[in-house]
Design brief:
The structure holds two protein chains of two kinds. Chain A is an alpha/beta fold. Helix content of chain A is 42%, strand content 22%. Chain A has five helices and five strands, in the order βαβαβαβαβα. Chain A has helices at residues 14-26, 39-52, 70-79, 98-105, 120-130, and strands at residues 4-10, 30-36, 58-61, 88-93, 110-115. Chain A is globular, with a radius of gyration of 14 Å. The two termini of chain A are 16 Å apart. By secondary structure, chain B is α+β, with helices and mostly antiparallel strands. Helix content of chain B is 55%, strand content 15%. Chain B has a five-stranded mixed beta sheet, covered by helices on one side. In chain B, strands 1-3 form a two-stranded antiparallel ribbon. In chain B, a hairpin with a 3-residue loop joins strand 6 and strand 7. The radius of gyration of chain B is 33 Å and the shape is elongated. The chains are: A alpha/beta, B alpha+beta. The A-B interface holds A 12-13, 15-16, 18-20, 22-23, 26, 37-38, 64-67, 93-97, 99, 115-119 and B 76, 79-81, 83-84, 86-88, 90-92, 94-95, 98, 111, 114-115, 243-246, 248-249, 252.
């Protein structure tokens, strides 16, 4: 059985999304994996799913994207007004800039900050740290 | 007797008061007084120099600080853009390890190849950027037609490159001298952008490169009927690492390099663009004698 119902990937790089899809599938981490290469489309997707009651439990978010970047995405996400029950956001980035990590740590809506690439081990860690409270 | 240095006078007063000094030390005292005077003069001069230097140092320091901030940003952005393809390659290698299917493995290998090429391009961009910053301007006569053909043939590997009609119009009866390597970078960047951002919905995609040389300068226009650039991004496209389009797969350093090269050559560049209609870059480059 998969651990989560749905995961949303937001990254402008198709290849990264397809890698992460396979890794998540292989690790039996989520039943459904949705990928968006344009952050503003991802916001629209979340709005729709909110109405449908089929929100992802977790969003993997890239930082460095053209037009709406990861930080802009979080600003828009905050406007959606989720309380405790909203999707968790984990930043998944190639950035090794300590300023990015620091900035992320100051934003409540960002659950964690991780360096690419995603691996089954990292998924295990994410699950045990952020989802296995029950 | 000549007037003694005031510091020395005070010392003498302290020890002798009003009493006259013994005649035999008069000469010695005079020598000491002269040394005192010299010392004070030199000290004053030194102080003045130090004041000036510290002001210069202060200016230099704030300039260095600015440069350092720029370098900092450059290093972090660059390290990100160097790491991004590497993390993709690592991820793809993981997938190959997991995969038991040959067709799947082949797909991953193909993606590793594409990603490696992307990384190689970026490194080449960085080298070009540094090259432009560091080296003096070289000046030789430019054959624009040959130069543009060279750029086009190097860009032939790009997808869509074949489908685009290329119109090259060079009007150069007067010899034009400039830096060949820099011009090559300039044209490569602008032409590859026109190919990369061609409009797949246009029936007749074209790319037009026009050069007109007069004695003083060359006017260059590079025009396409590609996807265009949104008005809100137009004033930022020459910034370092700025990516205007969600379709952008690059690092956003290309047009920054173009701008830097134009500035180095003492020319100018402007852009007009409309979404879904196309983009027009106009450059003026001085004839380097």
């Amino acid at each position: 059985m998969n651990k989560l119902q749905k995961v949303l990937l937001v990254d402008d790089d198709d290849i990264v999304n397809s890698i992460n899809k396979v890794i998540i599938k292989h690790a039996k981490f989520a039943n459904e994996i949705v990928a968006e290469t344009i952050a503003s489309n991802a916001i629209d997707y979340i709005k729709n799913q909110k109405d449908e009651g089929t929100l992802p439990e977790l969003i993997f978010l890239d930082i460095n994207m053209p037009e709406m970047d990861g930080w802009d995405f979080v600003d828009e996400y905050v406007k959606l007004g989720f309380e405790e029950n909203g999707p968790r956001i984990i930043m998944l980035t190639s950035s090794i800039n300590p300023r990015d990590e620091n900035r992320a740590s100051l934003i409540d809506e960002i659950t964690d900050f991780m360096s690419k690439p995603l691996s089954p081990e990292i998924l295990d860690k994410i699950y045990s740290e952020h989802f296995s409270s029950n | 007797m000549s007037k003694k240095n005031s510091h020395l006078q005070r010392q003498i007063w302290k020890h002798y008061g009003d009493k006259p000094l013994p005649k035999e030390v008069e000469k010695l005292i005079q020598t000491i007084s002269d040394s005192y005077n010299n010392y004070e003069k030199e000290n004053k001069l030194l102080n003045r120099i130090m004041n000036i230097s510290s002001e210069e140092l202060f200016t230099a320091n704030s300039e260095l600080r600015k440069r350092n901030d720029e370098l900092d940003r450059f290093v972090y952005s660059t390290s990100h853009d160097l790491r991004a393809p590497l993390t993709s390659i690592l991820g793809l290698l993981q997938l190959i390890e997991l995969s038991e299917n040959k067709a799947e493995t082949d797909k991953y290998i193909y993606q590793i190849k594409q990603t490696t090429l992307q990384l190689d391009n970026f490194i080449q961009d960085i080298v070009n950027y540094t090259h432009n910053k560091k080296l003096e301007i070289d000046s030789e006569e430019i054959d624009f037609e040959v130069l543009i053909e060279e750029c086009l043939s190097k860009l032939n590997f790009m997808s869509d490159a074949d489908a685009i009609k290329k119109i090259i119009e060079v009007d150069a009866s007067i010899p034009f001298k400039s830096d060949r390597q820099r011009l090559h970078n300039l044209f490569s960047n602008l032409i590859s952008n026109a190919i990369k951002y061609c409009n797949p919905n246009t029936e007749n995609p074209f790319l037009k490169v026009g050069v007109t040389v007069n004695g003083k300068e060359a006017e260059i226009v590079i025009e396409d009927n590609g996807i265009g650039i949104d008005r809100t991004h137009l004033d930022k496209i020459f910034e370092m690492f700025y990516r205007a389009s969600a379709k952008s797969k690059g690092s956003g350093i290309g047009l920054y390099i173009v701008k830097e090269i134009v500035e180095k050559l003492g020319g100018s560049i402007s852009v007009e663009s409309e979404l879904n209609k196309g983009t027009l870059f106009t450059l003026t480059l001085p004839n380097q004698k």
